[in-house]
Amino acid sequence: MDTMFLIRKLGHVTVYLILTLLILRAMKKRKQSHMPKSTYVIAFVIAIMYAISDEYHQSLTGFRDGRLMDVGIDGIGVLLGMWVYSRFIQKVYFR
Q: Rounded distance, CA 53 to CA 61, Å?
């Protein structure tokens, strides 16, 4: 497997992990100690819709192409972001 391919895909995962952390942080209420599961579902939908729109816009350019596989890889980043937020950030910083 090509090293640059792996680096690009790791970039997708990292960007969507960070995006999901930011979405969840933006959705957190000030005095809320525990985030409801519905908030995670909404954050997931927002991030995946962004991934789909990003790939669609790439398909409109002449030098890039949109790939469904990239949306799946972005989804891995979203799920990792949700996991990081629920396991570490929410428990440590937002009690």
A: 13
